[in-house]
């Protein structure tokens, strides 16, 4: 199993720095605005739902169990915040995927000094939205069977003790595939090639994906996770995956 977890995690933070480069920042604006809007909308819905649930739970609990509210309320708010973060990130990924590909393209050209085979321009990115959506659906179909297996493990005594780790590793793996797909798709490479490339450098891929999976669920921090993850995945592609995929 080649690669390095720490190096992979470092790609995310290096990618965050890359976003400040001249000529790159304006490619970050649209996904960032979309994430903020969706987070506020979903956050407002979650606020109403969680508040109503807490009110009904407090009424349903007998007085001698009232102390449980001090335990349950922070956990419910935490779960609501994490879920809102994940949902807004997922929705932005679906709706703005062509713009992430454009960001990956500009970053790769900045890093390597070479043009990518993908066609340039914002209009082209807009025209690629249907294709981008089908590519996202392909990833979802790949994820669902593994998620179903992870869910079954949570129902099995003894094995379910490992379910949090399994879910986190699955999330890290999918996040690495999700974002490495953007620079590789710019080279017209199929999704199967993305899986093989990430598997060849599995530790580096999981290091990047693990950081992204963790920060995606943290409210406010998740607002910058998508462009930073795109930049980090582009670094991973340029430094590890592309040389292995196209050895000289």
Describe this structure in words.
It is a single chain. This protein is mainly alpha-helical and 248 residues long. It has one domain (5-245). Helices cover 78% and strands 0% of the residues. It contains ten helices and no strands. The chain has helices at residues 5-18, 26-60, 69-95, 97-112, 122-127, 129-154, 163-185, 191-200, 202-216, 225-245. α6 runs antiparallel to α7, α7 packs across α9 and α9 packs antiparallel against α10. The two termini are 22 Å apart.
| Strand elements, count | 0
Q: Domain count, please report it.
A: 1
Kindly estimate the percentage of residues that lie in beta strands according to DSSP. under 5%
Q: Return Rg in Å.
A: 20 Å
By DSSP (H or I, 4+ residues per run), the number of helices equals 10
Largest sheet: none
Kindly report how far apart the N and C termini lie.
22 Å
Question: Structural class of the helix and strand makeup?
Answer: mainly alpha
User: What's the mean pLDDT score?
Assistant: 76
Give the overall shape, derived from the CA principal axes: globular
């Amino acid at each position: 199993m080649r690669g390095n977890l720490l190096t992979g995690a470092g790609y995310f933070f290096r990618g965050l720095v890359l976003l400040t480069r001249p000529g790159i920042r304006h490619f970050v604006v649209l996904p960032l605005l979309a994430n903020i809007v969706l987070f506020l909308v979903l956050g407002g819905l979650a606020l109403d739902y969680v508040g109503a649930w807490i009110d009904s739970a407090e009424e349903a609990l007998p007085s001698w169990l009232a102390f449980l509210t001090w335990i349950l309320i922070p956990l419910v708010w935490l779960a609501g915040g994490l879920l809102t973060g994940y949902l807004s990130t997922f929705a932005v990924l679906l709706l703005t995927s062509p713009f992430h590909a454009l960001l990956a393209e500009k970053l790769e050209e900045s890093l390597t000094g070479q043009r990518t085979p993908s066609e340039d321009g914002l209009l082209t990115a807009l025209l690629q939205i249907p294709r981008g959506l089908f590519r996202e659906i392909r990833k979802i179909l790949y994820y669902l069977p593994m998620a179903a297996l992870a869910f079954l493990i949570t129902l099995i005594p003894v094995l379910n003790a490992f379910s949090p780790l399994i879910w986190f590793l699955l999330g890290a793996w999918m996040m690495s595939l999700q974002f490495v797909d953007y620079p590789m798709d710019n080279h017209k490479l199929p999704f199967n090639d993305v899986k093989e490339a990430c598997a060849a450098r599995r530790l580096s891929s999981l290091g990047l994906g693990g950081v992204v999976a963790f920060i995606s669920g943290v409210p406010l921090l998740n607002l910058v996770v998508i462009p930073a993850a795109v930049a980090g995945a582009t670094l991973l592609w340029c430094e590890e995956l592309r040389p292995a995929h196209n050895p000289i």
